[in-house]
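Q: what sequence does this backbone want?
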């Protein structure tokens, strides 16, 4: 009995130690499992789930332009929406609002920038503004907008004119290329697929609205065709080949002009002939006037464009 008491005490201590160890291992294991679960949930929330659990979007207005014309102060705001402020998505512009002396006057582009809440995870709309010209009576700005993702190479704009007593704006204008502004003037640089050409434009202020039109006063015209200047019109042939041009393809019996091209022959692209002057979607093959040395003529086929060094691009 004397020797049994120490044995029982040691055995009891061993059982208690093992039980405590098992509980410690179990607690550590459960703690580790909880940690992994929390990390995984946090990552999913950051990438896929809106911060507000009921999927209500967030809204904000951003001041992008201020115009002061005598006693009138105009403020132009981008009205924006986002479903998640964690940085996973982009703010999408839903419309433009114009305030005059603190009071909202106009809401523009609401239908053009319409994206459903469900689409905001993959799509968004953006608006950019650039001043065109201003004086003490008015200011004109260009509004460039688009919804993404979209194919590159096209542009849509509208014009807004601020005056002391009123606001004028235009409809939307689309071009396969870019609108350019320089020295208070606006023009269109359109892309045909092989080369770019310039469209002189003018702003017409009539009937309390703005219109953007081709400036036909400075565009050469023969018969029903307008001749538009090619932008950066120097190109070079890549191979040795024969090129067939036409002296006047618009006549009943045009004459052929044959030219022998060598690699790196310099070619000047002069004009492209179009018959629709108010439609600025010129992607396709049009008659192109070129100069090679002392000879001038017109070409139109895709194969001829490639011969003179023009590569097709969308």
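A:
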């Amino acid at each position: 009995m004397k020797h049994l008491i120490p044995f029982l005490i040691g055995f009891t201590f061993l059982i208690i130690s093992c039980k405590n160890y098992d509980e410690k291992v179990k607690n550590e294991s459960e703690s580790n499992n909880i940690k992994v679960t929390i990390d995984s949930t946090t990552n999913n929330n950051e990438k896929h789930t809106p911060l507000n659990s009921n999927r209500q979007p967030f809204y904000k207005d951003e001041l992008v332009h201020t115009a002061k014309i005598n006693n009138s102060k105009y403020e132009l705001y981008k009205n924006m929406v986002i479903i998640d402020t964690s940085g996973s998505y982009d703010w999408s512009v839903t419309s433009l609002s114009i305030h005059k002396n603190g009071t909202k006057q106009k809401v523009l582009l609401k239908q053009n920038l319409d994206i459903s809440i469900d689409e905001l995870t993959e799509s968004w709309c953006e608006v950019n503004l650039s001043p065109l010209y201003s004086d003490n009576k008015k200011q004109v700005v260009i509004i460039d907008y688009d919804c993404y993702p979209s194919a590159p190479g096209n542009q849509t704009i509208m014009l807004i004119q601020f005056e002391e007593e009123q606001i004028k704006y235009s409809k939307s204008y689309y071009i396969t290329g870019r609108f350019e502004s320089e020295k208070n003037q606006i023009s269109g640089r359109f892309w045909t697929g092989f080369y770019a050409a310039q469209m002189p434009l003018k702003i017409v202020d009539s009937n309390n609205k703005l219109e953007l039109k081709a400036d036909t006063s400075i565009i050469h015209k023969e018969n029903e065709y307008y001749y538009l200047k090619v932008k950066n019109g120097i190109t070079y042939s890549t191979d040795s080949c024969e090129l067939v041009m036409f002296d006047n393809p618009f006549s009943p019996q045009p004459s052929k002009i044959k030219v022998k091209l060598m690699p790196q022959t310099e070619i000047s692209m002069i004009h492209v002939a179009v018959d629709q002057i108010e439609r600025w979607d010129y992607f396709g093959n049009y008659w192109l006037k070129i100069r090679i040395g002392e000879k001038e003529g017109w070409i139109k086929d895709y194969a001829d464009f490639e011969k003179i060094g023009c590569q097709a691009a969308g």
